[in-house]
Structures are given as C-alpha cells and as structure tokens.
Structure to design on (366 residues):
C-alpha cells in the first residue's frame, strides 16, 4: 500500500542522528504492523551540512522540507562550529526552516510522567501530575541582529512584533486551552518593553473578541520563570514571545525530570486551499556534544515528538496515544537512560530504550 504521508528526517549533529534512528524504527513499526506507512526521506542540516556543503541548510534540503508533510528534526550545533561567524553557525539551518516554512507556533508540552516525579530537581509533589504547554512565538521577535563597529563594537538585536503576529499565536494558545483546562497565561515584559505592551493589549483584544470563555491571566516573564519553579501546576497554557519562550521552555523542561523528555511541534498556518500546514517536530534538548557518539542519549523526547507529528500532521490520535503509553510504560518499568538514572532503576542505552518502546507498542497492539 502506498501512502501520501511524507516524513523528512533531518538528524543534524551531536546526538541528533542517534535519537532519530529510534524515531525511524517507530515509524517503520507502524508501516509494518499497522499498515500506516510513511514515505521517509532524509537530509543534512546544521554542522553536518556545513562540513559537507558549506551551508547549514542546503537549498535541496530546504526544497524537500517544503514538499514534505512533516519534518522530524534531531539537533544542531556543537563546539566544532562555535567560533563560526553568524551566517555559518549550524543554528542558522534551523532558523531558516522556521522562517521559510513560517513555523510561527511552537508547542512545547511539559508533562511529568508519574515514574519520573522523583527525578525532577523540584520536590515530587510540586511536579507530580504536571501537564502544561508553552506556546512560543517562533518566527518573530529578535529579528534584526548585527554587530556594528564604530570604534567600539556594538551588538544590536531589535525585538519587533506586529499585531498579526501576536493575534495568530494568541489564537493558537486559546484554541489549545479550550481542549485542555481553559486557562491561558500570557507572558511578556510590558513593564519595560514596547513589544510587551503591544503583546498584552493585542492578546487581550483577541481574548475579548473571540475567546472570552477562556480564562486569561497576564504575567510578567520574570515572574513567570519564578512561578514555574515555585508552583508549576498553577499553569495550563503559557503563550509568550520567541525569546522568553526559549528560556521558559528550558525551565519547564527541567521540571519534568530531564531535558531529555521534552518534545516539541512547530506549526505553520493552515493553507486554506488544502487544509495542510507545514510542521516540524524536534526534541527540545539540543545536540548534547558531551555525550554524542556514545549511544547513551535519551531518545524519548524524539519519540514523543514523533507522537506529536502523528497527532498534529497526520491526524492519527490513536497511534499517538499508543506511542505515549509505551513511553509511560517503559518508564514505569524502571528503564532509564543516563540522564534519568535513579536508584533502583535499570540503566539502558539509546537503542535499548528504542527496543523497549517497540516492545510496549507490540504489547498494546496485542
Ligand atoms: C530551541 C533552541 C534554538 C532556539 C536554537 C538551537 C536556535 O534553543 O529550539 O529552543 O534558540 O530557538
Ligand atoms: Mg532553546
């Protein structure tokens, strides 16, 4: 059976290729066992592409990304390229994807699996049952950056937001909240930033006009960071700009026990003609050069990102549930990669974690 579910795998650098291998295994499993077939293709991005082709995002890979239903992205960056000039940094590959596919809505769920409540750096009762989503604006914000040399060197990053940019990300957050606990915190710095004032006013306008059934609370971004580590369960959906979202999502990640657990989805606008949207799915953890190449990285954030792809790009909610249940089961069975290691748990490597997830899915499939 052929399918029109095209999936582009971009492993990238560091632990990216190791964790993406496990995603491919899960995708193949669906083709084999459930007749849900994905047309897989891959490409180079980040430092790997820089080394091979002199650019972090080759045009040919960009074209593939544009043509595919969903992109699974590993990670980019590493010490080898740290001193590169800006336009030759591995991160530019990811930024080009986000910009050119207009992936403005970045969903970063932070869900604490029961078995990991003890692994959080916070007390278990503060994070047990935690289920929040950060909705990060992903294509605007610090849009104009340069280094100016006029005797003294100056670095300049200009934060700029327009009302349409704020409206569309606000709508994503309110829509999502309606399917959850109906609460949105909008986070900015309206006490010191003009974009913050605009953000607050425009989120409020959309709320009044279209979503007054959802509860909206405004919170300054610094206070939001503090509240996330003080009492994270007060949140449901947090909507925020590109820069604050970058930071707040790292904070939220650690609440769940490990940065190695957090998936994300970056979604574009729906094409009114086809109903399709560009989408990229990636683990939040990054390339982790310190453990790259050892086969010990935690593949669960990537596998959970694939579950998000099943849900948001392919409308396969049941299959997504299966993957998530298998991950929860593996953790409940006490299997842990190094980042999650605790007393009385069994240490496994990347491939063994992949094996265990596949076994869990097999069991669920009967
Ligand atoms: C993230 C990362 C990226 C970002 C980098 C790799 C460009 O930190 O996705 O959170 O800053 O957005
Ligand atoms: Mg980040």
């Amino acid at each position: 059976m052929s399918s029109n579910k095209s999936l582009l795998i971009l492993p990238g650098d560091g632990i990216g290729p190791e964790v993406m291998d496990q995603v491919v295994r899960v995708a193949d499993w669906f083709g084999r066992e459930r007749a849900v077939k994905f047309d897989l293709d891959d490409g180079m991005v980040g430092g790997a592409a820089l080394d091979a082709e002199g650019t972090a995002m080759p045009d040919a890979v960009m074209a593939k990304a544009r043509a595919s239903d969903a992109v699974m992205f590993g990670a980019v960056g590493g010490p080898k390229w740290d001193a590169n000039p800006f336009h030759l940094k591995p991160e530019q590959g990811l930024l080009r994807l986000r910009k050119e596919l207009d992936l403005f809505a970045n969903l970063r769920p932070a869900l604490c699996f029961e078995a990991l409540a003890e692994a959080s750096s916070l007390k278990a009762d503060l994070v047990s049952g935690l289920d929040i989503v950060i909705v990060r604006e992903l294509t605007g914000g610090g849009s104009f950056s340069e280094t100016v040399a006029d005797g003294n060197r100056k670095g300049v990053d200009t934060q700029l937001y327009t009302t349409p940019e704020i409206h569309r990300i606000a709508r994503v957050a309110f829509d999502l909240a309606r399917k959850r606990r109906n609460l949105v915190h909008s986070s900015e710095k309206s006490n010191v930033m003009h974009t913050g004032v605009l953000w607050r006013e425009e989120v409020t306008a959309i709320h009044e006009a279209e979503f007054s059934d959802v509860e909206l609370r405004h919170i300054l971004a610094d206070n939001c960071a503090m509240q996330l580590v003080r009492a994270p369960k007060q949140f449901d959906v947090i909507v925020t700009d590109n820069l604050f979202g970058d930071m707040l999502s790292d904070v939220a990640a650690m609440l769940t026990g490990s940065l190695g657990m957090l998936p994300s989805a970056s979604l574009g606008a729906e094409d009114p003609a086809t109903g399709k949207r560009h989408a990229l799915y990636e683990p939040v953890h990054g390339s982790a050069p310190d453990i790259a190449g050892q086969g010990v990285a935690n593949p669960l954030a990537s596998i959970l990102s694939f579950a998000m792809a099943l849900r948001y790009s392919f409308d396969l909610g049941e299959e997504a549930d299966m993957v998530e249940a298998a991950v929860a089961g593996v953790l409940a069975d006490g299997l842990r990669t190094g980042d999650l290691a605790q007393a009385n748990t069994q240490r496994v490597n990347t491939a063994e974690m992949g094996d265990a997830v596949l076994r869990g899915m097999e069991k669920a499939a009967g």
Summary: The CA atoms of residues 84 and 90 lie 9 Å apart. Residues 91, 94-95, 246 surround 3-isopropylmalic acid (ligand 1) (CB under 6 Å).
